[in-house]
Amino acid sequence: MTIAERMVAPIDARDSVRAIRGVGRQRAEILQNAGIESVRDLLDFLPFRYEDRRVVTPIVALTPETPSALIRGEVVGLRSRVTRVQRMELIEATIDDGTATIPVVWFNQPYIADRIVRGDRLVLFGRPRTGNGGELQFDAADWEKIAADGHGMLEGRVVPVYTSIGGLPQRWLRGAIAEALAALERLDDPVPANLRTGLGLPPLAASLAELHAPSRFDAAVSTKATGEYRRLVFDEFFAFQLAIRARRTFSEKQPKPRTIVIDDAIRATVRRTLPFRLTGAQKRVLREIADDMRSPRPMYRLIQGDVGSGKTIVALVAALVAIANGHQAALLAPTEVLAEQHFRRIGQLVDCDAIRVVRLSGSMTAREKRDARAAIESGEAQLVVGTHALVVGSVNFHSLALAIVDEQHRFGVDQRKALFDKGTMVDILVMTATPIPRSLALALHGDLDLSVIDELPPGRRPVKCVVRGSARLPNVLDFVRERTGKGEQAYVVFPVIDESDRTDLKPVTAGYEAIRASLSDRRVAMLHGRLPADEKQVTMDAFARGELDVLVATTVIEVGIDVASATMMVIVDADRFGLSQLHQLRGRVGRGAASSICVLLRDETASEEAKSRLREFAVTNDGFVVAELDLTQRGVGDMTGTRQAGSSRFRFGQVVRDHALMEAARDAAIAIVDSDGPEAALDLASRIDRRQVRVEGVD
């Protein structure tokens, strides 16, 4: 588009950003590097804060304690000089508003001296402060000359402040976005009006206009709690949910090529396998799984349950159903330690003469892997337990019907899909012991149906939890000696493996040597992720058999370790862990009938906030309460530490804060897919937010 055409053609949100006056090749490149390619992208570039410039403050009323203020007056003095110490060029203008005068100072902006002369009338926004000489001066963050009509653009309104982009001035950004707002007259509002009305959301154009040029300034505006901001949050959540629901529906177009039946013989086999009576929650979840497995559509279900709630037993029952129907099941674990734990536990429960259980992991010898792959391909292996080695191309299943993914948050969608592709329309069952609110589960695993095991098996006792300063470690080790003297076992967890100049965290290597010296009359071993796989397994086996009293470890023991006689958990530098991770570690004890205790050793210099956080954690054993605390204090990405959990896919929404909108978006997306089909849903998602469609990979 030529400059002449741009002057006459109405601007459209779909136009390139170069349709904005003043955006040439260089500025367009700067904007594109920030993800702004179209006029609509520019409209979606919202202010990160606002400044209230509606009231002019008399200079005589300014004090060093005055927050940012707007002043106006005449330039009655102007000079430039170079500071003696730092050799910075300083421009100083004296402003008189009739009530008093004040010097206004700009550092390293020599061009200002060419733009201002005595007699100019200015509007300035900034902060008063005490200068080096003790006098009050004004640091102007923004300024402009008063127009002939006596008004300035800076005053009488709430002014948006945008994140800096490649050095582009705020004034230029505001002008470019103000021009882009003209596109709102022709902006399509793709969200159906009845849906907007039902949720109390304003139209899109009105929302964007208000967000860039607020008509008011209050707590709602400053905290992004306005209806206009909620509208943009809903749009990106809605596009996200439409995309993933469409993706799931596309994958379900072909019915499963098998029929799963659950008869009395299968029920009897399951009853013989179970080591205890199922809880009501387990029975409820199993009914949901059974309905999915008998359905002609593939199952996509997430089992969410607290530590020790019995998720693995539920998954094993589902596997037995698939096997009894002549098919195979696979269980994918994130670590070799966890895979080995599952393999051994399942081996204890099932009749290995009737069901062939095979393990496959990276540390196995070439011959062991070859034999396992042959058994899997022939169908001789009915239940396969392994790590990511299961999803590589060389593993071929004979008739995979059920894929179970443990600790789902440690795997990406691609790995789950790779396992799905090992069979034909495979049922997917994923498990997580990370307790997260329903809204976050919908965001992280939005294409999955959710089942929650919210009840612990009978006989499980809550773990007592106490917080102590790190100086109490000798006393804690005395307690460890006392309990291990009764035949019990203990874990001592450190946050890192080795000492580092970049952190003051206490390393497990040094901690192991100190504890072994202090508990010289006890059997102490060390476990961390950099040890060879066979050495790790030997250590874990010895601990499980009761041949070790104390295991000094990193968070490698966080999941899957099940030793009933381990009754004491000591966590060093506990104030540096996330609460959900502390909860996972605490869950390694209390797995038997004996009372258990978790000691949180915090640094002596820990902040009051950190101390309060640990105290709140210590008084609850409810993982969902812990998760809410962790999410509130640390955020989604910190809590789970994964790409899937990161909030980068959302520009406006925060899953915890905006959980109600996420659920509303999911319900609305399901209704659209059911009524109009996945193609229409995907088209609508693209019209609302093309970025979310690209993120979900369903173009």
Question: Would you kindly provide a brief summary of this structure?
Answer:
The protein is α/β, with parallel strands linked by helices and 699 residues long.
Give your account of this protein's structure.
By secondary structure, the chain is α/β, with parallel strands linked by helices. Among the domains are: 55-155, OB fold (Dihydrolipoamide Acetyltransferase, E2P); 264-453, 3-Layer(aba) Sandwich (Rossmann fold), CATH 3.40.50.300; 464-620, Rossmann fold. Helices cover 38% and strands 18% of the residues. The longest helix is centred in the middle third of the chain and has 25 residues, at 227-251. The radius of gyration is 32 Å and the shape is globular. It starts with a helix and ends with a helix.
Structure class: alpha/beta
What distance lies between the first and last C-alpha atoms, to the nearest angstrom? 28 Å
- Write down the CATH topology of one domain: Rossmann fold
Radius of gyration: 32 Å
Estimate what percentage of residues fall within beta strands: 15-25%
Q: Tell me the CATH architecture of one domain.
A: 3-Layer(aba) Sandwich
Helix count?
25
Features:
699 residues, alpha/beta, Rossmann fold, 7-stranded parallel sheet, globular
